[in-house]
Each structure stands twice: as C-alpha cells, then as structure tokens.
Amino acid sequence: MRIEVVTLFPELVDGASRYGVTGRARERGLWTLDTVNPRDYATDRHKSVDDRPYGGGPGMVMLAETMECAIAEARERLRRDGVAAAKVIYLSPQGEPVTHKRIAELAGDPGLVLVAGRYEGIDERIVERAVDQELAVGDFVVSGGELPALLLIDAVVRQLPGALNDAQSSVEESFVAGLLDFPHYTRPEVYEGSAVPAVLLLGDHRRIARWRLKQALGRTWLRRPELLAARGMSTEEAKLLEEFKQETQEQGSGE
Ligand code: 9WO
Q1: pLDDT tens across 133-156, in order?
Q2: Which residue's CA is the closest to the ligand 1 atom numbered 19?
Q3: To 5 degrees, how large is the angle CA 118–CA 120–CA 125?
Q4: Domains defined for the chain, CATH in brackets
Q5: pTM above 0.85, yes or no
Q6: Which atom of ligand 1 is nearest to the CA of 98?
Q7: Atom of ligand 1 nearest to the CA of 141
C-alpha cells in the first residue's frame, strides 16, 4: 500500500511511522509513506498557507490554493505508481466515525491520500472539490490532523498481510470478534499483595479459554454495553456472562 500525507509537519508524520509495527512493516516494504507540504506551493514572499476567516472570529483557515496543489501532487505521485483513483481522506472532528469495518475497507485500497489540517481547518471548498471522505477518530479536538492521520495509518497497516506476527494476530482477532480484550498478567505471581487469578496458574487450557472469554464478555458488558448489543451472544456466552455477573456481585457484597 502507498500512503501520501498532506501536512505542514512532514517530519512528525514520517518520524512517528518509523516505530514499532508500522516501522517494521515499512522496512519490509509492505507499505510506503510520502509527504507533501502545502508550504511548498505558497506563492507569496511569506510562504503563507493560511489566512483570516471570512465572517470574522478567532484563528486562521488553511488556504484553498496551497492545499489543492498539495493534494493534486499527492494524487499525481500515486497515479504515476499505478494507483489510478486514490481516495482522499480529511481527518476532522466533523468526520464520520472510524470503525474497525472502515479500517478493514481502507486496508484493501492500493493507495490513500490523508489530509492533515492545522489551525481552524481547511477552506470548505477544498473539502467539496478534493476530499472523498471526512473521518473522525474520536469525539474530541486536537491541534491538528497529523496524530489522527498516524492513528489511522497504524490501524490500517496492522491489517496488511504480514504486518503482524502470529502472536500479535491472535490478539487482534479478539477485538474483531466485537469484544474488549480480557485482562493480562505476568510475573510476579503476587504483586503488592495482589495475586494472579488462580485459574491462569493451573495449566488447564480449556478452563483458561473459558475464563478469558467470561472476562471479555463481562468487561464489554460493564464498559461498552452497546458493543455487546450490536454483536449478540451465543447461549454459551450468555451463560458465561451470567456467571460473571454473579461473581462480581459476590465481590461487591463482600462474600
Ligand atoms: C480549532 C478551533 C479553535 C477555536 C474554535 C473552533 C475550533 N475548531 C478547531 C478545529 O476543529 N481545528 C481542527 C484541528 C481543524 C482540522 C484539523 N484539526 C483537528 C483534527 N483537530 N482534531 C482533529 C481530529 C481529526 C480526526 N479525529 C478526531 C479529531
């Protein structure tokens, strides 16, 4: 996969993508990253990329022309590499929510252009003319689109075949199954008076799998009930969740 990021801070995006899973996948050639800086398309002597908003108010808006030139260059580079019609994605709090399903779809694209805005955003005419999808990675505002773009890149790259090793892939499957992950423990067996759950020490792999599924169901029920409602449960899972509820009640009442 080929990813182009339009950003005023190319070193930030390039640098962060060199770590961990995305960095290794990049070294192995599973994906490439290039950046285009709207600053390089500025035409005045101050190299302006922003101006004051029509209608007044605080802050600045990114100029239509420098932004459109930068997006055109990103698309052109991808086209030269055989990606005929790359999707252009603008990261903004006004976008549609990013879900696992959307990430899986994007991972199937041969190339993507990600637009990271700064200031109060980009001129709306560029959203209309040059952007295919406006996406939000959460219901909050940050200072620019670079970290949201990196988050999207990380989530997409880990879906590329060969990006994760076997151990990492199996963890992935639990979230794909629509549940939150179960709790994890490592040495020591007792930490500051708090013991690892006994079932994990006995080596009975069927019981361990059952306990972990119970914890995953229980946590999802407690923290993200809407995920559980959307997914539904098998008869066996419903039984495990009932056990979880009983056990947490017993803890709460001190029995
Ligand atoms: C800044 C601002 C300041 C005063 C009044 C209103 C304001 N709105 C914004 C704003 O939304 N700035 C954005 C910064 C413009 C687009 C890039 N920025 C951004 C993207 N912040 N947060 C995101 C983002 C992207 C995807 N998912 C979550 C957040």
Answers
A1: 999 999 999 999 999 999 999 999
A2: 144
A3: 95
A4: 2-158 (3.40.1280.10), 172-253 (1.10.1270.20)
A5: yes
A6: 27
A7: 22
